[in-house]
Amino acid sequence: MSTMQQAPAAEAVEEQMGKIVTELGAALGVLLTSLGTRSGLWAALAGAGPLTTAEVAAKVSVAPSLVREWLRAQAAGGYLSYDPASETFTLPDAVAAAICHGPGGALVDAAATMFSSMGRPWPGFWPPPRTGRSARCGWRTACGCSASRASRSSCPIRRASAISRR
Predict the structure, then answer these.
(1) Among candidates 1, 67, 83, which has minimal Cα distance to 35?
(2) φ, ψ for residue 133 (rounded to 5)?
(3) Is residue 60's pLDDT more than 60?
(4) How far is Cα 145 from Cα 24, in angstroms, rounded to an integer?
(5) pTM for this prediction
């Protein structure tokens, strides 16, 4: 015997889709913030005032087209100010304090490292094991370097939090 289910309200489905899109955007934001830390983009912008894409690209070893897309993404996320008249981007002092001078940059970079190491064993999650035993996936079984990578990636966070407590 089957039961007929009423379709969920369009508003409820839209709300759930909003949550999914928000989480996807946040995950991409972590990766883009980490790229900015690793490439020196955040440091190039910190305290520099308004800069054009070409000026930022000249300060780092990143192709101007990639710098432009990164700058646009950070402005869309609210991390950079953009002036369309002069086509310049500015890093607000509060963002610089959190990412460049505080634990924010190290925290995001550690999360990006963790995410990348978690992706390595992804094929091992499917198909599920049929033996009744759990799949051999996790930090210590993902690859030979995951455990040490996880430890290394959290070191900057521990150092930053220790400094802020002094």
Answers:
(1) 67
(2) -95, 155
(3) yes
(4) 27
(5) 0.66
